[in-house]
Specification:
This protein is an all-alpha fold and 292 residues long. 73% of the residues lie in helices and 1% in strands. It has one domain: Farnesyl Diphosphate Synthase (Orthogonal Bundle). The chain has 15 helices and two strands.
């Protein structure tokens, strides 16, 4: 029984560590400009599983590092990820009204405040990495490459441009690799960098992270079709309503499920190739074998 409960306990412990570290980094809500700081905190502390920070910590530990070594990078990842969520939800982007079971930032405050809150969180992410001795520049480079026009932002641009277009296999894979997998890949590589891992190990972490990220996005798209608002904490059916380019739109639901299973198995195999990758393997299994 202890083995069955080990992973949830581990997740909660790391989530709490990241939460405390983020709390120390964020300006208090009442500090001027108070509305901006309140909006930043509203979105950052709205809940969520902190998957990318936890993966960063687990990857660091898989390479012989510690939670303390990984925490700055883990926080930077969550700061940047939250910025992407705020901006993705904007009326000019995906135009969503719910995130993590609460009104999205632009609904709770206003569009201008939401844009600025996202900008401030993004900037703070790189401020945090700039303070990390020795590995700070390598961590900042990894995150910047994952987040820019050849990563998350590029994926979002293509995702928006693809709305309403005929399903295209190459395009949907490009969107998934950049919009989602790039940041999950970076989380794992950054964890390895924090631990001082060698190039070969970082390559294994990159493969694990990218494969996990691709599977995660396919399952997220499937859940958008079949889950409830209460289960996911965000608007359901918006992908179909917006004509989004998804794996199931290209190949159908059954093929999407099969691809998610195939990628999950590949991610677990990549984790198993690491010196201490058992926890990463379990994290992948928990993340990806959701009901869909």
């Amino acid at each position: 029984m202890r083995r069955m409960t080990d992973l949830p306990i581990y997740m909660k412990r790391q989530q709490n560590a990241v939460h405390a570290a983020l709390e120390a980094l964020l300006p208090p809500a009442g500090e001027r400009p108070a509305k901006l700081h309140e909006a930043m905190r509203y979105s950052l502390f709205a809940g969520g599983k902190r998957i990318r920070p936890v993966l960063c910590i687990a990857a660091c530990e898989a390479c012989g590092g510690t939670v303390e070594q990984a925490l700055p990078a883990a926080c930077a990842l969550e700061l940047l990820h939250t910025y992407t969520l705020i901006h993705d939800d904007l009326p000019a982007m995906d135009d969503d009204t719910l995130r993590r079971g609460r009104p999205t930032c632009h609904i709770q405050f206003d569009v201008a405040t939401a844009i600025l809150a996202g900008d401030a969180l993004l900037t703070l992410a790189f401020e945090v990495l700039a303070t990390v001795p020795t590995t700070g520049s390598a961590l900042a480079l990894e995150l910047a490459r994952a987040a820019g026009s050849r990563g998350v932002i590029g994926g979002q641009a293509e995702d928006l441009d693809a709305e309403g277009k005929a399903p295209d296999a190459e395009l949907v894979e490009y969107i998934h690799r950049n919009k989602t997998a790039a940041l999950i890949r970076a989380a794992c590589v950054m964890g390895g960098i924090c631990a001082g891992a060698n190039f070969q190990t970082l390559e294994k972490l990159a493969l694990y992270g990218e494969t996990t990220g691709l599977a995660f996005q396919i399952i997220d798209d499937l859940l958008d079709e079949g889950a409830t608002v209460e289960e996911l904490g965000k608007d359901i059916g918006s992908d179909r309503a917006n004509g989004k380019m998804t794996w199931q739109a290209v190949f159908g639901m059954d093929a999407a499920r099969a691809k998610a299973e195939e990628l999950t198995d590949s991610a677990c195999a990549a984790a198993a190739s690491l010196p201490n990758g058992e926890r990463l393997k379990k994290l992948t299994d928990q993340m990806l074998r959701r009901t869909f």
